[in-house]
Amino acid sequence: MAILDVLTFPDPLLHRTAEAVKIIDNKVKKLVDDMAETMYEAPGIGLAATQVSELKRIMVIDISEEKNQLRVFINPEIIKKEGTAINEEGCLSVPGFYDKVERAETVMVTALDREGQRFTINASGLLAVCIQHEIDHLDGHVFVEYLSPLKANRIKNKLVKRQRELEREMDMATPRRRVASVRA
Ligand code: QAP
Ligand code: CO
Fold this sequence. Notes:
Layout: H1 26-41, E1 46-48, E2 58-61, E3 71-82, E4 85-89, E5 99-103, E6 106-112, E7 118-124, H2 125-138, H3 149-173
Antiparallel strand pairs: 1-2, 2-3, 3-6, 4-5, 6-7
């Protein structure tokens, strides 16, 4: 098991479309397990493979209080949507920012589980929000895109600035290699 690096908005990879999984082999199962570990460690309630730089249609969700009800969705598809609801959302790829987003209130979704078994569920409440948020990632969308351009730009600028500061800190922590001076 491993903790994976989570991409931060506005990374261009977050806007690419993920490809359907053809065979659930050990590599896919390891990715599912690593994604779950990464989500729990964050901690978060949902994570899409796109966020860990894997353009595969895989997402993990656990909205339970005890963090013991992992749901794995491979090649998820929404087959029915009903109503609308506005909920506060956040995202591991948009750390520290939360805002209201309007989505369908209930969704019927079909997907394959970690063993390749098809399941279909009717989701409402937080689970419905999370499923739509994660499927958006697989289609290259981040919740920030639903906010006003003003809000979206503010978030983008702050995250770019923070990333630069983090990179600078990491660079400072790297010991400078002494370069042998070339004698004339
Ligand atoms: C998507 O998001 C979601 O800003 C999952 O600093 C969120 O797990 C669906 C997180 C809300 C529905 C409602 C965010 C962790 C986790 C942060 C997450 C942060 C640390 C977000
Ligand atoms: Co997200």
